[in-house]
Amino acid sequence: MKPTRRIVSQFRAALPRVLLLLLPLPLALSGCGRNRFPVYPANYHEFAYVSNGASSTVTVLDLVYLRQDRVIQVGRQPTGLAVNPVRNEVYAVNTGSDSVSVIDAATNRVSATIGVQRTPYFISVAPDGKRAYVANSASNTVSILDLDKRRQIGVVATGEGPGMARVSPDNRTLVVSNRIAGSLSVYSITDSREHPLELREAFPGCAGATDVAVVANSTSELSSGAKAFVACSATHQVMVVWLAASPNSWRGKQDPSLQHDHLLCFLDVGNTPTHLAVKPDGGEVFTTNFGSDSISEISTWTNEVLGTYPIGSKPASAVISEDNSSLWVTNFGADSAAMYSIDDGRVEASVHTGSKPDSLAFSADEHLLLIADSGSADVAVIRMQGKDGPTLFTMLPSGGHANDIVVKSFHAKL
Predict the structure, then answer these.
(1) b/e map 388-410, b = 16+ CB within 10 Å
(2) In 90-175, alpha helices (H)
(3) pLDDT by residue (tens digit) across 288-322?
């Protein structure tokens, strides 16, 4: 007998945000530490935004005063969030209403709603802040959004069941993971109005392809190529693809073969890799292996797995500190977050959170770590520099089934 809509909804609410892509398509305060909190100028603002799938809202948390600022009504079942790097805007993908809500961070109100195609989950914003890309999982397409004009300017076909679209650091390439097809699609980004994306290559063999990380080549030239790491979530592997260097770059001129996309290798990690976290220096990528309670460390230089280590129950998401020293992982099955020392190769701290912790983000200066608890409708606020190390400072309310969390900071005009 087919499950009722209510049972399916309850099942979805028990899953981390990235594992939603694996479903069939329609488918107490701790004591203050010895270090004081930062002192900010009067015109400084910093907010965390939490998408609440069950209540069709985005909760705004004021990180200067550590309180809830407001709750914004958006489209149905918001999932992925993204921040514009050059303007004060945040974008919420509404999976249930096939749209993107544009939130003005200065007023914390929805300033526009952009229609896309069927069942989007995540959004990626270009480095220059002018375009965004949304993979539409039920229509096998990618929507190209003009963020100045607030509209969809193009739609391009992908493989079956696209989930993630990621832009390369040089803004030349878009890569899309196709979950059902088990593949990666690679596109050139153009200035053409008629053809803003042009398919360059497709790489099969990555069953359950979900999360994608794009790492720039380690030269001063952004156009010298990059690598895409793809979590093959139906397996225990990560696919590594070389993304073409510009023919005009130093590297492209030295080796013409690097002007073409090509498959580099498949790497064995733990079972069900769900999330990829890149060190800020680009030297390593870490996977959270949801099915084997572990993380795997991958060298982006040599394309090899340096090790796989136990981390906790059902690790879901991860974030790395700006100094490249610490990896924080949410343990979805243990209601906790673990801090893994990258240099020392061991877990150095574990902090209790709310129920089913999933996505996480640092505050701008990393004195706070924010963890969205999908099972308890709250956000765990971890103080990073307390007397006894990282400690749970407080819990702030969010909404039903928190799917994602991002942080935006800015100085307002006086």
Answers:
(1) eebbbbbbbebbebbbbbbbbbe
(2) none
(3) 999 999 999 999 999 999 999 999 999 999 999 99
Whether 24 contacts 161, CB under 8 Å: no
Q: Of 298, 403, 392, 414, nearest to 356 (Cα)?
A: 403
Tens of pLDDT, residues 155-198: 999 999 999 999 999 999 999 999 999 999 999 999 888 899 99
Q: How many CA atoms lie within 13 A of 176 on its CB side?
A: 36
Can you name the residues that pair with 411 across neighbouring β-strands?
Answer: 44
Residues 2-18: tens digit of each pLDDT = 344 343 344 455 567 76
Reference 274, options 213, 214, 315, 239; nearest CA is 315
Beta-bridge partners for 237 = 232, 268
102-113 burial string, b = 16+ CB within 10 Å, else e? bbebeebebeee
- Distance between terminal CA atoms of the chain? 62
List strands edge to edge, sheet with 197-204: 162-167, 173-178, 183-189, 197-204
Contact 391, 407 (CB under 8 A): no
How far apart, in whole angstroms, are the C-alpha atoms of residue 343 and residue 326? Answer: 8
Distance CA 18, CA 379 (A): 18
Q: What is the dihedral of CA 284, 228, 142, 87, to 10 degrees?
A: 40
Q: What is the CA radius of gyration of the chain?
A: 20
pLDDT tens digits along 316-369:
999 999 999 999 999 999 999 999 999 999 999 999 999 999 999 999 999 999
| CA atoms lying within 13 Å on the CB side of residue 318 | 34
Taking CA atoms, 145 is separated from 56, 112, 175, in Å, by 22, 12, 16
pLDDT digits (tens, 9 = 90+) for 29-77: 333 333 567 889 999 999 999 999 999 999 999 999 999 999 999 999 9
372 CB-contact burial (10 Å; exposed 0-12 / middle 13-18 / buried 19+): buried
Which pair of tokens denotes residue 261? Answer: 């996309």
Distance from C-alpha of 346 to C-alpha of 34, rounded to nearest angstrom? 26
Q: What tokens were used for 216? A: 């720039």
